[in-house]
Every structure is written in structure tokens, then in C-alpha cells.
Write a structure and sequence with these properties.
rod-shaped, three-stranded antiparallel β-sheet, disordered N terminus, alpha+beta, 7 strands, 6 helices
Length: 211
């Protein structure tokens, strides 16, 4: 989700009810500076800070704060000094299409959360893609003699290609700790000590891509 999506929602709210507006800032790093930096959305429009809005006659009616992996996100609800009690906003003018301030806030928070989840997913996918490139050479040179070109050779009770990433990671830990049947040198080639969770994810991604 891009900021333009959130901005359109906030601009809609502002145009629907001219004396109240919402401004926001995503993933900000410092509570000490939040009131002096330009906020996005609504009447702030990427140009005005909370201090600027106060100087223009707006007051802070409410604020929503949420933590993200990269900082703190803020949503400010501002109203003019003579603004009455906030009423439900009507979107589109159709029957049954009214949306309350609380619902609008919830929609924005949901979109921010969805954006955070998408960013985290994209980061994981990028890491796996990078690990896969390195894993192909590693697997061909050090693993396929025992496990087969596609991980199809059965070792013990399993084949590498049938294992999940989690099962591979658990097996790696057992190899390094010498737990159970994996304590035997038969099941513990020397290069196992050079593997880690990242290379395991890469090997899994590589094997899945050639099945």
C-alpha cells in the first residue's frame, strides 16, 4: 500500500467535513520531533507540522500511535477551534454508506498494518532469493553427491527434497549438537558446520525450484 492510498482517504474525510481533518506520519524515529515535522494527508498535505497547524487555528482532537518495525506511526485528528462534536461522515451520499470517524481511523490503521506486513513479506522473499543464488553452488559442490541432484536420495528415513525448511533447520541443530541418530559421523559431514539458517532457506528454495 502506498501513501497515496492513505492520503486519498484522508483527503476524502477532509473534503467531506471541512472543519476536521486527519494527518499522519509513518515510521517516525523520534517522539521529540513529531510535532515539528511535516505530516502527510489531510490539510497537512506533506507541508505542515502539528505546530504549523496549531498556528493556523487547528487543535488536536485525538491521536493514534502504533509501533512498527522501523519506528512509530502517528495519526492525528485535528479540528478547528469552533468545530462542534464530530458527527459521522458520509461517503458517496448513498444510503448505508456513512462512515464514522472511528471506522475511518480503523480503516487507516488496517491499511498501515497491511503495508507493514507486505514490507516484511517482501523483505523475507528478497532474502530467500539472495540465499537461493548462493545455495545452488553450495548444494552442487557439497551436497548433491550424498543427497542427489534434486535431493531425491533417501538418507536415513527421509529425502532432503521432502523436508520443510523448519525440518531442515531442526536437523541442522541436531547435527551440530550431536543429538540422537545424527550424533553419528555417518550423518554429519564436515561441511555441515558451515551451514546456517540462511543457507538452509536457500537450499530449500533451490530444491523446490528444480523439482
Amino acid at each position: 500500500m502506498k501513501k497515496a492510498v492513505i492520503s486519498s482517504i484522508l483527503l476524502l474525510a477532509t473534503s467531506s467535513f471541512a472543519n476536521t481533518t486527519m494527518c499522519f506520519k509513518e515510521s517516525h524515529s523520534s517522539m521529540a520531533t513529531i510535532e515539528s515535522i511535516a505530516l502527510d494527508g489531510g490539510e497537512c498535505a506533506g507541508k505542515y507540522s502539528i505546530n504549523d497547524m496549531k498556528a493556523k487555528g487547528w487543535t488536536v482532537d485525538d491521536i493514534k500511535i502504533s509501533q512498527t518495525a522501523s519506528g512509530t506511526s502517528f495519526i492525528y485528528i485535528l479540528k478547528s477551534a469552533d468545530h462542534p462534536k464530530i458527527a459521522p461522515m458520509v461517503v458517496g451520499g448513498a444510503a448505508g454508506s456513512s462512515i464514522s470517524q472511528e471506522q475511518m481511523e480503523a480503516n487507516i490503521m488496517a491499511k498501515l498494518e497491511a503495508k507493514k506486513e507486505a514490507e516484511e513479506k517482501a523483505k523475507v522473499e528478497a532474502e530467500i532469493k539472495e540465499a537461493k543464488i548462493d545455495a545452488q553452488s553450495l548444494y552442487v559442490n557439497q551436497c548433491q553427491n550424498c543427497h542427489g541432484a534434486k535431493g531425491e536420495v533417501r538418507k536415513g528415513n527421509t529425502r532432503l527434497k521432502d523436508l520443510s525448511t523448519e525440518a531442515m533447520e531442526e536437523a541442522l541443530k541436531e547435527y551440530k549438537l550431536g543429538v540422537g541418530e545424527k550424533a553419528s559421523s555417518v550423518y554429519a559431514p564436515s561441511h555441515i558446520n558451515f551451514l546456517n539458517d540462511k543457507t538452509i532457506k536457500g537450499i530449500k528454495a533451490y530444491l523446490d525450484s528444480i523439482q
